[in-house]
Design brief:
The complex is a heterodimer of chains A (114) and B (117). With 114 residues, chain A is an all-beta fold. Chain A has no helices and eleven strands. The chains are: A mainly beta (114), B mainly beta (117). At the A-B interface, strand 4, strand 5, strand 9 and strand 10 of A face strand 4, strand 5 and strand 9 of B.
């Protein structure tokens, strides 16, 4: 049973436009969410996170939105750049899990084309 | 480099053989994690070490899987009697212990791609 779901395996966006990556979760105990970015042959790198006490967190071109009632979060990248092309993983953790055990989604492959 | 390193980068083995995967965490990081990513799947938590505490082994899929962390630094993930379904990328991550924050960022290594024939 997947607790964190990324239903879109891929997304293609034109350079300069907005990329929106979505993530849904089922476990209401999750209270901390993270986005990781992964290039081929490299490990994932941390991008941005959000605590459940917030509904938005922004860092430069990246903004994460959290809708707790819908158990949904999204990552917005604007403007999108070709270097953003990668696989994006959504992850969740909980205080009861000690925040150490990250539960990942299957990832969304983003392609930003000129 | 100063990042997490893993070896080997690729490992091909025959079904039934044992394999050892190595992880060198970032110096000074007290927490170490193992994950695996099967084809088309997200990262699956396997095991977590924090300092001298007993490891959290709740993610290990079977008793064929074990891990050690010697001296609070290098870790080895061992898979005995490998099966074809063990084929995956095995990722190691480490994080510092930071006070006042509930979550510490996990820094990942490049992974070991294991193929069991």
């Amino acid at each position: 049973d997947q607790q964190v779901k990324q239903n879109s395996p891929s997304l293609s966006v034109q350079e300069g436009r907005i990329s929106i990556l979505n993530c849904d979760y089922t476990n209401s105990m999750f209270d901390y969410f993270l986005w990781y970015k992964k290039y081929p042959a490299e490990g994932p790198t941390f991008l941005i996170s959000i605590s459940s006490i917030k509904d938005k967190n922004e860092d430069g071109r990246f903004t994460v939105f959290l809708n707790k009632s819908a158990k949904h979060l999204s990552l917005h990248i604007v403007p999108s750049q070709p270097g953003d092309s990668a696989v994006y993983f959504c992850a969740a953790s909980s205080r009861s899990g000690g925040y150490n055990k990250l539960i990942f989604g299957a990832g969304t492959r983003l392609a930003v084309h000129p | 480099g100063a990042g997490v390193s893993q070896s080997p980068s690729n490992k091909v083995t025959e079904k039934g053989k044992d394999v050892e995967l190595r992880c060198d965490p970032i110096s000074g990081h007290t927490a170490l994690y193992w994950y695996r990513q099967s084809l088309g799947q997200g990262l699956e938590f396997l095991i977590y070490f924090q300092g001298n505490s007993a490891p959290d082994k709740s993610g290990l899929p079977s008793d064929r899987f074990s891990a050690e962390r010697t001296g609070g630094s290098v870790s080895t993930l061992t898979i005995q009697r490998t099966q074809q379904e063990d084929s995956a990328v095995y990722l190691c991550a480490s994080s510092p212990r930071t006070s006042g924050r509930a979550v510490s960022e996990q820094f990942f290594g490049p992974g070991t791609r294991l193929t069991v024939l």
